[in-house]
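Morning F.,

Quick status update on the modeling queue. The single chain you submitted on Monday has been processed. Sequence for confirmation:
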Amino acid sequence: MNIPSDSTASEPVNGRIAEPSSFEPKVSAAEIQSTAQEILGSLLKMLQFETEIETEIAEQHLRFRIKCEDAGRLIGRGGNNLSSLQFLLNRLVFRKFAGAPRVYIDVEGFKEQVDGDVLRRAEAAAEQVRRWGESLELAPMNSYERRMIHQHFANDPEIVVESIPDIRNLSLKRMILKLKR
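Structure tokens below.
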């Protein structure tokens, strides 16, 4: 943000207090992508990973595909390290650019494979719901997986999806697939 040195966000501008965002110029997707990639590269370098990063800019998000020799260590058990890195990168990017698109990170196709598995399990469950007409509960999922399931079934004419809290783990929710009535 380029604010002149004699101006602050709390000083009146044209008789009104200006919000900090009113000083911020419009930022291009390419600038956000470049900054996010720079931050990601710095984080990975600090963690001593030798990587190659490919970027995809979409309308609603940025996707970074990472290739590295020590992918297992970067991904972590059950993808925990990868999820933490993605969370941290999103926080840093959102802090710098309010309203920036969400950032997704994949390492050696791990996230893509997991996402495919989640969707296949949900689709198999939806087939059972269609066949038998009874509701079916999926395993507890994090917010990213739930969002993916909700989006997948958003335009389905037969299936409705509901999220309910999981009493064993408050950061996860269970998904229930039902027939639309």
